[in-house]
């Protein structure tokens, strides 16, 4: 399913066409052949900045990714993102992987214990 999804995404015209971005103190605008979008800085819910680039999350299922190669020589964009987005959107979140792993392991062990308990009662 993952492979099929990647193949379908690669065929999507929106992902393959050239996009032009314009950054202003009010927000940024993205223009392409098939769509136009204008985003206010206040609409940015989360900002992820790392060595690979900047990812601006707008909704739970929408965002804009600016790779490091796009940002090279454009320090104004990074400064604008830091200046105009809220500090709360830039907080680093803790990884939930270990918490989920521990929870699943606990559920698995409890389930195995219950099954073994009933098996031992029925055999004995």
Would you give an account of this structure?
- The protein is of the alpha+beta class and 124 residues long.
- The protein is 44% helix and 26% strand.
- The chain contains 5 helices and 6 strands, in the order ααββββββααα.
- The chain has helices at residues 2-11, 13-16, 68-71, 75-84, 97-123, and strands at 20-23, 27-31, 36-40, 46-50, 53-59, 62-67.
- A 3-stranded antiparallel beta sheet has the order 1-2-3, covered by helices on one side. A 3-stranded antiparallel beta sheet has the order 4-5-6.
- A hairpin with a 2-residue loop joins strand 5 and strand 6 (62-67).
- It is elongated and about 75 Å long.
- The chain starts with a helix and ends with a helix.
- The model has no long low-confidence stretch (mean pLDDT 81).
Which features would summarize this protein structure in a list?
26% strand; three-stranded antiparallel β-sheet; alpha+beta; 124 residues; 44% helix; 5 helices
